[in-house]
Structure formats: C-alpha cells, structure tokens
Amino acid sequence: ESTLGAAAAQTGRYFGAAVPAGRLSESAYTTILNREFNMITAENEMKMDATEPSQNQFNFTSGDRIANWAISNGKRVRGHTLAWHAQQPGWMQNMSGSALRSALLNHVTKVAEHYRGKVYAWDVVNEAFADGGSGGRRDSNLQRTGNDWIEAAFRAARAADPGAKLCYNDYNTDGINAKSTGIYNMVRDFKARGVPIDCVGFQSHLGTTLSGDYQANLQRFADLGVDVQITELDVEQGSNQANIYAAVTRACLAVSRCTGITAWGVRDDTSWRDDNPLLFDRSGNKKAAYYSVLDALNGG
Ligand code: G3I
C-alpha cells in the first residue's frame, strides 16, 4: 500500500495524526492529512480548558470542527483528553476537594456525552503518574481529591459513552521502568476489580534512542487484557530518526493488541517541538522516516 493509513489497515490497525483546528483551512495540509491518515486527534481542542472555559458552560466549536472533518472524510477520532492536571481552565485550577471532584466528573460526563458515538477511544486520564523512580502518582489538584479519582473518571466516561474505548495515556513509558510499572500495577488492579479500562496509550515522544524493551513493555500491558496504542509519536531528527520510527512501528505490529499509531502532528513546522520530529518536512515532503514507517507497515 502507498499511504500510511492503508498500509496500517492491512493488519487491522490505524495510522493517525494530531491536528490543530486552524490547519483544517490550509489545503496543502489537509491534502496530506486526508491522504495519509485514518485516525484523527485534536491536538488541543478537546482538552478541559478548550471545552469548559467557564464552569458548566461548554464550548465544542473547535473540537466539533475537527471531529466533523474527520468523520466526513471517513476517519475515526481519538478523543484527547477528559482529565489532566495541565490545561485546566482557570476556574478549575483553584478548586479542591469534593467541589473539584464533582466538577471533574461533570466535565468527563458532559464531554463524553457530547461526543458519544463519534469517538473510537478516549484518553480518559492523561499523565497522572510521576516521573522518576517512585512509580507513584503525580501530585496535582486532582490527585489531592483522593487516589480513586482516576477510577471515578473511568466509570463516569463509561456511563457517558459506553461505546468508546477508554484509555489511560502517559509519556516516559517507553520501556519497563518505575513509571510504566506504576501504571501497569494500576491497570492490573483496575482489571481485577472491574474498573472499566480498555486501553493504554504510550505517547512516545522520543529522542535519539529507543528502549530495548519497548515492545516487551507494550506486550506486558496487552497481557493484562487491554489494547495498547502509540498515541503521540514524534522522534528527534537525527541520524537515527527513521530507524526509531521503524522500530516503534514494528513493535506495534508485533503486539496483536497494539491497535494503532498516532503521530503528534503532520509537518515539522506544525510540531510542538522544534527538532523536526515528524514524518513530513516543512514543505510537506515525505521524509526518510516516512518511508521507513510505510515500509514497516507493508511488512518490510
Ligand atoms: O491558542 C493559544 C493562543 O490563543 C495564545 O495566544 C497562545 C499564547 O500562549 O497560546 C495558544 O495556545 C497554545 C496551544 O498549544 C495552541 O498552540 C498554548 O499556549 C500551548 O501551551 C499549547 O501547547 C500544547 C501543549 O500540549 C499544552 O500542554 C501543544 O500544542 C500540544 O502539542 C501539547 O500536547 C501534549 C499532549 O496534549 C499531552 N502529551 C504531551 C503533548 C506535548 O506537550
């Protein structure tokens, strides 16, 4: 196959991209997006600050623009994200305790209800674990409402959109390490207690090396009975960029429950990073990394 989406579909997987709503009016950009990708994530437009700028006053204008573009072009949508310590609206940043818990669950419910039937998978909770060696939770206003805030968010999301796959999503989980093991233990506990969780997202914002146990880490989560997805892939440009992209792609293909890969942007000039980490250059040309991913998806 000659596009990322079609090549991924040969094994029942998807290949997606994160998109800012503003780019949907740039035809050079949407030409690439429409041709190559078959899963769409809003880069910022479905986050808490975007969707609930004032308490219980929701604004879905930009998120809808992205979801409707995706659906009208035959693509699926990964929702990002219902609950996060960052990009909270100002009114929420200063809340705590039971008021914050209620506000959080109202947010999860209302946003997931709005997009019910349109979202393949939601990043229900994003980045709730700490970096470093503790393997524990990140401190945040949400965490201070009680350790059970994550499962409460998942239960609210399930009730609001029973058809969406519900994911936990995080970064620096690219191998077997303290942080990924902390998440692994949470997922194992959720599965044992019947907390609704269907998938784990591995953001995979990568530098110039890839952990040798990247695939083994995906596999150990899959073995818990959840899907795994590469959710925000980008890789520092350098001599190893194409190799790392290919290795990540092959790792996903080797794990039967790895259902797809999303790149965190399309062209290098639209990336949140300044180290040219994407598959298309600033002019929209396919990079070596692009060809290495396509070749891997085609079984090469
Ligand atoms: O849209 C406003 C604009 O109106 C304003 O004038 C300008 C001034 O700061 O800011 C603009 O918003 C920025 C937004 O991107 C859109 O460009 C925010 O400041 C900026 O913080 C925001 O950055 C986003 C970042 O998440 C925020 O945490 C990046 O685009 C986005 O790629 C990045 O994505 C995250 C994932 O959600 C979670 N995982 C990590 C990943 C990379 O940081």
Key structural traits:
300 residues; 9 strands; single chain; binds ligand G3I; alpha/beta; globular; eight-stranded parallel β-barrel; 38% helix
Can you summarize this structure?
It contains 11 helices and 9 strands. With 300 residues, the protein is of the alpha/beta class.
Task: Give me the number of helical elements.
Answer: 11
Structural class based on helices, strands and sheet pairing? alpha/beta
Whole-angstrom Rg: 18 Å
Largest sheet: 8 strands, parallel, barrel
Strand numbers in spatial order across the main sheet: 1-2-3-4-5-6-8-9
Distance between the termini: 12 Å
Low-pLDDT windows of residues: none
Averaged pLDDT: 98
Q: What share of residues is helical?
A: 25-40%
Shape by Cα distribution:
globular
Distinct ligand kinds: ligand G3I
What is the number of beta strands? Answer: 9
The ordered string of helix (H) and strand (E) elements is: HEHEHHEHHEHEHEEHEHEH
Residue fraction in strands: 15-25%
Fold and architecture overview:
- The protein is an alpha/beta fold and 300 residues long.
- Helix content is 38%, strand content 17%.
- The model has no long low-confidence stretch (mean pLDDT 98).
- The structure holds ligand G3I.
- Ligand G3I binds next to loops.
Topology:
Elements: H1 4-9, E1 14-19, H2 27-36, E2 39-42, H3 48-51, H4 61-72, E3 76-84, H5 90-93, H6 97-114, E4 121-126, H7 149-160, E5 165-170, H8 178-193, E6 199-202, E7 205-206, H9 214-222, E8 227-235, H10 241-254, E9 258-263, H11 288-297
Helix pairs in contact: 6-7, 9-10, 10-11
The structure holds ligand G3I.
